[in-house]
Write a structure and sequence with these properties.
Elements (H helix, E strand, L loop, with lengths): L1 H5 L10 E5 L3 H12 L3 E5 L3 H22 L4 H9 L2 E4 L2 H5 L4 E4 L5 H12 L7 E4 L6 H5 L4 H5 L1 E5 L9 E6 L5 H13 L3 E6 L6 H17 L5 H12 L5 H8 L1 H16 L12 H8 L16
Parallel strand pairs: 1-2, 1-4, 2-3, 4-5, 5-6, 7-8
Antiparallel strand pairs: 6-7
The structure holds acetoacetyl-coenzyme A (CAA) and nicotinamide-adenine-dinucleotide.
EC number: 1.1.1.35
Subcellular location: Mitochondrion matrix
Catalytic activity: a (3S)-3-hydroxyacyl-CoA + NAD(+) = a 3-oxoacyl-CoA + NADH + H(+)
């Protein structure tokens, strides 16, 4: 358990300043959990609007926690954490003196590679680079950086909602050094998450098992075999899942799910994942085209206020 990991005599992580790129669902959560656990955090995105969106996600989550932890001083609790988070649209400023960059931007190999290539020339040499990619190859992202940085590059995969989900997958590439891996383990424990380790394979552990299930659920509804509501009820009450697959798809984001399956199509060509699994799903693509991305856009398989 997390408790057991935390009680070991691990030396304190050297990471003090954390920079998070992407202030969406995941980046906001990662910044928040860092700030809650003693890190100085910089949250960066491409627009002020995206940064505001991130701060709104963080404030809502913090007030939810404060209602339980310090019900008499919700604002005090919230602002005591928010003061550890700076925001900026200036990527160069964001990595100044940073010890760890966690990238949580759009799930696109090209966009991620462009960002890391740029940052490689700006961040200090010792800074560790990590990607929160759900499905892309960590090595292919890391190759955008020079050989030195590739040793300080790994996957650090959090789960949604970050403040509530206890797991972090640490993904090593053949280039990731042992010191990098250990520093990432320490910072994961400092953020009160339980680390597991995985090779750089499509979907790592959780998504390699979870995403095929989510895609099969959409195919089931697309065939007309059951409604989303009935599939959700079935998996919640019949299999004990906290959320049925359609609630979870809306929660994860249908765009993100679509990017994951698109990214895996390339892997199928090289035999790393089965062709059948990654066939395009017209129902999913149609919703994404219509801007129905799930909870974050107000509508997906379900509608939200
Ligand atoms: N911020 C802070 N705390 C939160 C929170 C948030 N955004 N969301 C939930 N919580 C906390 C609650 O405060 C509560 O805490 P306590 O136990 O201390 O009271 C706890 O989490 C449980 O929440 P609730 O009682 O309100 O509701 P719930 O029992 O329905 O749990 C849930 C909510 C944790 C989201 C649960 O429904 C769940 O586990 N759902 C499945 C989530 C999942 O599978 N995530 C993985 C998605 S895949 C992924 O992330 C990988 C990828 O690459 C795509
Ligand atoms: P999101 O759409 O909520 O947020 C993405 C953010 O990245 C947006 O605010 C966007 O403006 C920003 N962005 C895009 N390009 C940028 C750039 N060049 N520099 C800085 N910011 C940029 O997406 P999300 O759900 O938070 O997913 C982010 C990453 O995390 C993806 O790689 C995704 O696969 C992964 N992930 C998602 C989940 C999930 O459940 N949604 C879970 C684990 C991992």
């Amino acid at each position: 358990s997390v408790q057991r990991h935390l009680s070991t005599t691990q030396p304190r992580g050297k990471v003090e300043k954390l920079t998070v790129f992407g202030a969406g669902l995941m980046g906001a959560g990662i910044a928040q959990v860092g700030a809650q656990n003693g890190l100085k955090v910089v949250l960066s995105d491409v627009t002020d609007k995206a940064l505001e969106n991130g701060l709104t996600i963080i404030s809502k989550s913090l007030s939810r926690i404060a209602k339980k932890k310090s019900p008499d001083d919700i604002d005090g609790f919230t602002s005591s954490i928010l003061k550890n988070i700076e925001t900026t649209t200036d990527a160069v400023k964001a990595v100044e003196n940073s010890d760890l960059v966690v990238e949580a931007i759009i799930e696109s190999l090209k966009v991620k590679r462009d960002l890391f290539k740029f940052l490689d020339g700006k961040a200090k040499a010792e800074c560790i680079f990590a990607t929160n990619t759900s499905s892309l190859s960590v090595s292919e992202i890391a190759e955008s950086c020079g050989p030195e940085r590739q040793q300080r590059f790994a996957g650090l995969h959090f789960f949604n909602p970050v403040p509530a989900m206890k797991l972090v997958e640490i993904i090593k590439t053949p280039q990731t050094s042992q010191a990098t891996y250990e520093a990432l383990r320490e910072v994961t424990l400092q953020m009160k998450k339980a680390p597991v380790t995985c090779n750089d394979t499509p979907g790592f552990i959780v998504n390699r098992l979870l995403v095929p299930y989510l895609l099969e659920a959409i195919r089931m509804v697309e065939r007309g075999d059951a409604t989303p509501e009935d599939v959700d009820t079935a998996m919640e009450l019949g299999a004990g899942y906290p959320m049925g697959p359609f609630k979870l798809l809306d929660f994860v984001g249908l765009d993100t799910t679509s990017y994951i399956s698109q990214g895996w199509r390339d892997k199928a060509a090289s035999g790393q994942i089965s062709e059948e699994l990654v066939q395009p799903i017209p129902m999913l693509e149609k919703l994404v085209k219509e801007g129905k991305l799930g909870r974050k856009s107000g509508q997906g398989f379900y509608e939200y206020d």
